[in-house]
Amino acid sequence: xxxxxxxxxxxxxxxxxxxxxxxxxxxxxxxxxxxxxxxxxxxxxxxxxxxxxxxxxxxxxxxxxxxxxxxxxxxxxxxxxxxxxxxxxxxxxxxxxxxxxxxxxxxxxxxxxxxxxxxxxxxxxxxxxxxxxxxxxxxxxxxxxxxxxxxxxxxxxxxxxxxxxxxxxxxxxxxxxxxxxx
Length: 182
Prior knowledge:
By secondary structure, the chain is mainly alpha-helical. It has one domain (4-181). It contains five helices and three strands. A three-stranded antiparallel sheet has the order 1-3-2. The radius of gyration is 20 Å and the shape is globular. The protein starts with a helix and ends with a helix.
């Protein structure tokens, strides 16, 4: 039986995914001012480099919509917008982004269904575990810097990983609780 306090916890975690998506995940040096004009909306990486923070939503939405546009852009513009050898990489980017964007929302929403059985708990815990491994695997690509003081400015991805880990542990706990009842 899915009690009310568990429903509140899962709803709260689902709501916390929103600030994690909106929060900064990485930074880019494209289109930023010189270091002497680097204000609080930018990150001063070193004395010669200013960078712009990029929220997770921007990364994932670009990957979801940008990848198909790169593949099919030549249909609309009569120009080839990609290198043919890059098609597998673009499709992989699209698939990973789709999983990262929609899996937490789908799993959290399904978890709010009252008649959630043990088999679904197992599937859900495996899916959360795979997502956590995927997020930890791409972390070095997003955090490509040496100065750890910058990590505090990129809190969005860290929050996203922590929420995913919390949901994974909650699902494992749910499977264990159901086994103990049976």
